[in-house]
Amino acid sequence: MSNPQTLDEARAFVARVQSLFMPWDIPGLLAGFTEDCVVRFGDLPEFRGRTALEQLFRSRSERQKDYRLKKTLLALEGNVLANVWEGTWEDRDTGKAMAGRGLEVWRMRDGMIAVWDAAFNVWEEGGERRSPVM
Question: Beta partners for 95?
Answer without folding.
Answer: none
